[in-house]
Amino acid sequence: MASGGLQLLGFVLAFLGWIGIIISTAMPQWKMASYAGDNIVTAQALYEGLWMSCAMQSTGQIQCKVYDSLLKLEGNLQATRALMVAAILLGLVGLFVAVTGMKCMKCMEDDQVKKMRMAVFGGVIFIISGLAALVATSWYGNRVARAFYDPFTPVNTRFEFGSALFIGWAASSLAILGGSFLCCSCPRRETSYPPTRGYPKNASSTGKDYV
């Protein structure tokens, strides 16, 4: 029962991490910057994501623009996109594989060993998905930090970490943790003990019984 609870907990954490990776990928707040001119009315917040850039005025109006051409984007941004999309697809595959191996499901009930191995395989896929998202978000965050501390970067164009990065870091950690819990349900090999040797019974005394 304990392994079943750990398996269920791992699946829930991995599923929440996968949902968080999707949300982080879709959000435009991967990096943000605020700019205020001479008048506070002209203040605006700038956001940039993997798919679009947005500007929010002080009045609350938000204007977003999708990136026009894929070929005009930086190679680092394209690589980050590819890693996040790969993390989502891997998480989807891991979701179906892990569901098949869950003890609460009726699939493959005849062979419990293969069923548990499916859960472990799904956990491995979730771990790879979380690592892909973690590499993408950390790589993007490193570029933002380097540009922020670069003395040649204009003050008005210095970006900071956006909320999508923090969501991506948390989601990738959940996916890795959940996948690790699923891997803990790996079937243990039965220890083969040497056959016990039968000892001969005590031979009855051959001597005469004395009355």
Automatic annotation (TrEMBL):
<keyword id="KW-1003">Cell membrane</keyword>
<feature type="transmembrane region" description="Helical">
    <location>
        <begin position="161"/>
        <end position="184"/>
    </location>
</feature>
<dbReference type="InterPro" id="IPR004031">
    <property type="entry name" value="PMP22/EMP/MP20/Claudin"/>
</dbReference>
<dbReference type="InterPro" id="IPR006187">
    <property type="entry name" value="Claudin"/>
</dbReference>
<keyword id="KW-0796">Tight junction</keyword>
<keyword id="KW-0812">Transmembrane</keyword>
<dbReference type="InterPro" id="IPR017974">
    <property type="entry name" value="Claudin_CS"/>
</dbReference>
<keyword id="KW-0472">Membrane</keyword>
<keyword id="KW-0965">Cell junction</keyword>
<protein>
    <recommendedName>
        <fullName>Claudin</fullName>
    </recommendedName>
</protein>
<dbReference type="GO" id="GO:0005886">
    <property type="term" value="C:plasma membrane"/>
</dbReference>
<dbReference type="Pfam" id="PF00822">
    <property type="entry name" value="PMP22_Claudin"/>
</dbReference>
<feature type="transmembrane region" description="Helical">
    <location>
        <begin position="7"/>
        <end position="27"/>
    </location>
</feature>
<comment type="similarity">
    <text>Belongs to the claudin family.</text>
</comment>
<dbReference type="GO" id="GO:0005198">
    <property type="term" value="F:structural molecule activity"/>
</dbReference>
<feature type="transmembrane region" description="Helical">
    <location>
        <begin position="79"/>
        <end position="99"/>
    </location>
</feature>
<comment type="function">
    <text>Claudins function as major constituents of the tight junction complexes that regulate the permeability of epithelia.</text>
</comment>
<feature type="transmembrane region" description="Helical">
    <location>
        <begin position="119"/>
        <end position="141"/>
    </location>
</feature>
<keyword id="KW-1133">Transmembrane helix</keyword>
<dbReference type="GO" id="GO:0005923">
    <property type="term" value="C:bicellular tight junction"/>
</dbReference>
<dbReference type="InterPro" id="IPR003548">
    <property type="entry name" value="Claudin1"/>
</dbReference>
